[in-house]
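[stage:ingest] chain + small molecule (nicotinamide-adenine-dinucleotide)
[stage:ingest] validated
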Amino acid sequence: MPTLLVTGGAGFIGSHLVRYWLKVHPDWKVIVYDKLTYAGSLDNIRDLQCDRRLTFVKGDIADRDRLEPVFQESDLIVNLAAETHVDRSLMEPEAFLRTDLIGLCVLLKLLRQHPDKKLIHVSTDEVYGTVECGRADEDAALRPTSPYSASKAGADLLALAYYKSFGVPVIITRCCNNFGPYQYPEKFLPLMITNALLDLPLPIYGDGRQIREWIYVEDHCRALDHIGQRGEIGETYNIATGYERENIEMARRILQILNKPESLLRFVADRPGHDRRYALNWTKLAKLGWSPLFSLDDALQRTVDFYVRNREWWMKIRTSREFQTYYEANYGWRFDDSSSAVV
Ligand code: NAD
Ligand code: TYD
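[stage:predict] done
[stage:export] tokens:
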């Protein structure tokens, strides 16, 4: 049986990729290798626990000795293990460098030793920095502006260096902002949705007119599968949709769907170095025959429905010590016993 290794498979996108793969490729085994940081949880793949094709191994991608036997067992590796929150990277960049950059270095060295495998390294549109006008294609300059995107950009360059020097079978993907079920509620959309469900203010950074391009997480997973099958080794592929929206518009839309008042919107201090706009040119991927299936409206509705129906999943996170300490220390929120917060 061919085997897919998903590093970071207990996180948001990773858990969806595992679910998607087991459904679409009945003849494959899947191994999840994950450190289970604050952002990863077996709760995210609990619905798959009875599937005998799925194995879980707890481990750090920067730990070569632990990773190697798992790596050897697999045919295709999709690297989704990362520290991912820009705001945290501004406060504690070291973990980002260790996982996002050194972790990939460990994977690349293993790949060099085992060139019969293929690695898809999942990167982000944030490596291009802010895109004032037009759309960044894969050859655009990398101008990262946060420790998160700087670590990701460094990793991309390292992957390309390994390809150029040793011909290792690696493909890089750069995707726009994902959303959907099981996204940790520190990220913009799940934070807005869960705050609205708790009747708490929705913190909008700066003027709220920053633009992000949005993709439903399942479309991202389909793109990774597509690129795994049809993409060329050594190439980079942007993954995007054209669904560009201002943050304030997305927040308003969520309030509308939940039938909550706009008085919940709260403009707060801007993020340092906040990128104004991300926008990708994804013609190269479209030429391989991929396009998004979900409309923005449909995907938003599905996402909100998930958070409405799965309160237990996100309340477990929001009442955790990790979540509350982070918001108390950095944003001055106060939590009471029922986990309501004052922003
Ligand atoms: P996430 O934070 O939800 O999940 C990351 C997962 O990696 C968690 O399960 C965590 O436990 C695990 N992890 C962290 N450090 C690890 C380590 N050292 N070893 C092993 N596992 C470790 O992140 P996500 O949103 O699912 O993002 C996954 C990848 O996709 C990241 O590389 C990110 O840069 C990229 N990406 C994300 C988006 C987005 O909008 N979420 C967009 C483009 C690209
Ligand atoms: P985020 O989900 O952190 O993704 P990224 O910064 O990686 O694109 O944020 C998405 C956008 O939402 C970004 O412009 C910052 C903004 N934002 C807020 O306005 N308020 C918030 O509380 C958060 C977390 C983000």
